[in-house]
Amino acid sequence: MNLPLHFGILGALEAGLIALVIGFVLYAIWLPFCRWCGLSLGHAIGWSALVALVIGAGYDAWNLFYTGFVSLESPLYARIALSRIHDPDMLGTRVVIEAAGALSGVGLGWLAFSRNGPGPAQKTDTHPSPNS
Asked: How many other C-beta atoms are found inside a 10 Å radius of the C-beta of residue 8?
């Protein structure tokens, strides 16, 4: 995300909150689009979760993947690779918190936008009436 965030766990929590907002907004966008296209609620949840993960945690997840597979034999290459990462000490934690935030944002969006409004409780009669 490359924003000027704090370092350590506070920066990871800030990034997770940003990812949560991204997930919530994306669900709010995908839900009417999927309804307009005639797609199910699962499509709205799935696509918004996928896009929220890519936007919210994609940059840090790529850095985590890249530093795991690039050959860092020399200290110069390691220093160059780590200089592009905001907080390399908490990179794994930040990716996990961002992913959890993005998926939680989609879940909160589902709770906020997919509920049926409060209405009268429907009476379900399990015993048939004697006149029927």
From this structure: 13
- 67-96 pLDDT, tens digit per residue, is 777 766 777 777 777 777 777 777 788 889
Cα–Cα distance for residue pair 132/130, rounded to 1 Å? 6
Q: Model's pTM, two decimal places?
A: 0.73
DSSP the chain: ----PPSHHHHHHHHHHHHHHHHHHHHHHHHHHHHHHT--HHHHHHHHHHHHHHHHHHHHHHHHHHHHHS---SHHHHHHHHHTSS-GGGHHHHHHHHHHHHHHHHHHHHHHHSSPPP-PPPP---S--TT-
